[in-house]
Amino acid sequence: MTEMLKGTLEGIVLAILSMRAAYGYEITAWLRDQGFADIAEGTVYALLVRIEQRGFVDVEKVPSEKGPPRKVYSLNAEGREYLEEFWRTWSFLSDRLSQLNQGDK
Fold first, then answer.
1. Most exposed residue of 15, 47, 51, 91, measured as fewest CB within 10 angstroms of its CB?
2. pLDDT in tens for each of the 105 residues of the chain?
3. Which residue, among 60, 42, 52, has the nearest Cα to 79 in the 3D structure?
4. Predicted TM-score (pTM) of this structure
């Protein structure tokens, strides 16, 4: 399960950011609320760095009431294109896996 999740976590985070801008802890909390309890905060932050480097998100530093400014991530046009490709790939794989599963019965 963990290895499968690692392969899809980037798409999941981009999907979250397609709904609204968020900072790392918010994303981690949302994932945990959705049942992804084993995801470490450090994993999400490392992923955010990668998607920022790949140019999929815009980043704004927003003052925080406690501590340094927060980096708030929002999906940009390039990120939306990548997310669309992720969903196409996901649909393809999902369809094929369903066919395989039905073939076993």
1. 91
2. 667 777 799 999 999 999 999 999 999 999 999 998 888 889 999 999 999 999 999 999 999 888 899 999 999 999 999 999 999 999 999 999 999 988 765
3. 52
4. 0.87
